């Protein structure tokens, strides 16, 4: 799997027994790889039944998994935010193009899709909760991809599965049951396919094929009367076969995850993988903010010690940053965790070292801290954050996972996440002041109750930035305070320029 020459590799096998498949680290089978992935993706989709083959680097192992995880996190966030299937599809299509190209003939992209799925199996097979989340997100991903295929590729994919349950009824049986089948399928043609004309419905029905299978295979459709039942069998129209395919995909994936969990102890022989897998699986979150020499789109000198207090810029701050500013204004001081969280956030938006020292000096000396005390006790700390002291590490702004990993704020402390740390009354009052409606507030509180704090923050972003005709065109999950700020700032600038 990985390029290397010295480690013992001959006895390492993948976590599956399909056909005795095995790959050896350090070997290269480029032609065989291409033939394998061409066959797997002949119909553009896969059930991921055969283990991946070929070598990849450790960097590819981690980065491919991170890119897929970002897509799955976006799906999880959309589901939690009650997005419709069409809204989810619109959001995820952009993510596909950026992170996980699909329906492509590129060999590397096929390999990335296949490998990343199996890598995340290793990460999220470790508990029932993680398995459920992974199966739900991967199944939704599968359904979106299936709908993006042409009808020819959909048919090709279904045929490649060779599922016994996908047996179409004969024309004679369809004719015999035509009245009952049409009465059942007619409402679905209108609501799912948007066919309203009666003649068009009849024409579509004449061309449609039906699948006959045991009713328990489509039990969710039985309850909503979307299939015709007779003698314990359900008659499923072909345009609804995706429900059946998705259920089969989910069942198989769940079984494979349990099998992967049973094989996990074998990973202990390769100490290179354990830290990567723990990093990926911890908290089921990954930040979508990567600081590259400063803030996205920030011009030199755009942010100063004075204007970071301005109403215009402060309106872009997430609630956690507003809370830190409130504590700083009230006490002219912040304790260590608060200083770190706010200092690195301001660094992330593009506040220079000189302006940062000016900002903190003025804030602290406005209270009981003298200039001499500030220089002796605090100056080093802020320079250290910018990589100018000590080990000279370029520290990154804290993402939401880092913030949530810190101790909860005690009395007089302002670090942390308000969606986790504030009580219901305080949070409701603040959200009301931000012009959220009561149903919106209830939705945010519901996410907080489920410990989905980044989902709650994302909901607040959507509610506050969907007002005044401001279009939110980047509806992606927010798991970083600086990402919240950058998106808000971009929308603000876009509105001003119109």
TrEMBL record:
GO biological process: DNA replication initiation; DNA replication, synthesis of primer
DNA primase large subunit C-terminal domain span: 314-485
Binding-site positions, [4Fe-4S] cluster: 320, 400, 417, 457
Pfam family name, one: DNA_primase_lrg
GO cellular component terms listed in the entry, alphabetical order: alpha DNA polymerase:primase complex
Recorded coiled-coil stretches: none
Cofactor(s) the protein needs: [4Fe-4S] cluster
Alphabetical keyword list: 4Fe-4S, DNA replication, DNA-binding, Iron, Iron-sulfur, Metal-binding, Primosome
GO molecular function, one term: DNA binding
Cofactor note: Binds 1 [4Fe-4S] cluster.
Family designation: Belongs to the eukaryotic-type primase large subunit family.
Free-text function comment from the UniProt entry: DNA primase is the polymerase that synthesizes small RNA primers for the Okazaki fragments made during discontinuous DNA replication.
Protein name: DNA primase large subunit
Organism: Zygosaccharomyces bailii (strain CLIB 213 / ATCC 58445 / CBS 680 / BCRC 21525 / NBRC 1098 / NCYC 1416 / NRRL Y-2227)
């Amino acid at each position: 799997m990985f390029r290397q020459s010295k480690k013992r590799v001959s006895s390492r096998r993948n976590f599956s027994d399909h056909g005795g498949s095995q790959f050896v680290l350090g070997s290269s089978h480029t032609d065989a790889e291409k033939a394998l992935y061409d066959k797997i993706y002949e119909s553009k989709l896969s059930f991921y039944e055969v283990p991946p083959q070929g070598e990849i680097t450790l960097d590819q192992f981690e980065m491919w998994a991170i890119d897929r995880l970002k897509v799955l996190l976006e799906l999880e966030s959309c589901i939690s935010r009650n997005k419709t299937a069409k809204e989810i599809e619109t959001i995820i299509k952009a993510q596909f193009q950026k992170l996980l190209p699909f329906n492509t003939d590129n060999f590397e992209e096929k390999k990335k899709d296949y490998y990343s799925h199996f890598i995340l199996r290793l990460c999220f097979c470790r508990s029932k909760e993680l398995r459920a989340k992974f199966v739900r997100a991967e199944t939704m991903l599968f359904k979106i991809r299936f709908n993006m295929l042409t009808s020819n590729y959909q048919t090709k994919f279904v045929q490649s599965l060779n599922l016994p349950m996908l047996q179409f009824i004969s024309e004679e049986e369809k004719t015999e049951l035509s009245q009952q089948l049409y009465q059942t399928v007619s409402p679905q043609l209108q609501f799912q396919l948007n066919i309203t004309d009666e003649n068009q419905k009849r024409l579509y029905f004449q061309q449609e094929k039906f699948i006959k299978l045991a009713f328990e295979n489509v039990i969710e459709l039985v309850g909503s009367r979307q299939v015709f039942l007779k003698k314990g069998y359900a008659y499923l129209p072909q345009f609804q076969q995706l429900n059946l395919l998705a259920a089969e995909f989910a069942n198989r994936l769940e079984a494979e995850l349990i099998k992967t969990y049973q094989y996990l102890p074998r990973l202990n022989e390769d100490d290179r993988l354990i830290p990567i897998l723990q990093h990926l699986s911890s908290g089921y979150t990954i930040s979508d903010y990567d600081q590259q020499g400063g803030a996205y789109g920030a011009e030199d000198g755009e942010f100063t010690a004075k204007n970071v207090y301005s109403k215009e810029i402060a309106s872009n701050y997430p609630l956690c940053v507003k809370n830190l500013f409130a504590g700083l204004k009230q006490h002219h001081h912040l304790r260590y965790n608060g200083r770190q969280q706010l200092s690195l956030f301001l660094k992330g938006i593009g506040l220079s070292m000189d302006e940062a020292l000016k900002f903190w000096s003025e804030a602290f000396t406005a209270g009981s801290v003298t200039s001499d005390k500030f220089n002796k006790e605090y100056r080093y700390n802020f320079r250290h954050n910018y990589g100018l002291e000590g080990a000279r590490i370029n520290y990154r702004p804290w993402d939401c996972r880092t913030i949530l990993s810190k101790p909860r704020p005690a009395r007089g402390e302002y670090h942390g996440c308000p969606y986790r740390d504030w009580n219901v009354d305080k949070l409701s009052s603040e959200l009301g002041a931000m012009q959220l409606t009561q149903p919106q507030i209830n939705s945010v509180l519901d996410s907080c109750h489920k410990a989905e704090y980044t989902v709650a923050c994302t909901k607040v972003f959507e509610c506050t930035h969907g007002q005044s005709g401001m279009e939110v065109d980047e509806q992606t999950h927010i798991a970083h305070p600086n990402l919240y700020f950058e998106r808000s700032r971009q929308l603000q600038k876009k509105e001003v320029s119109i």
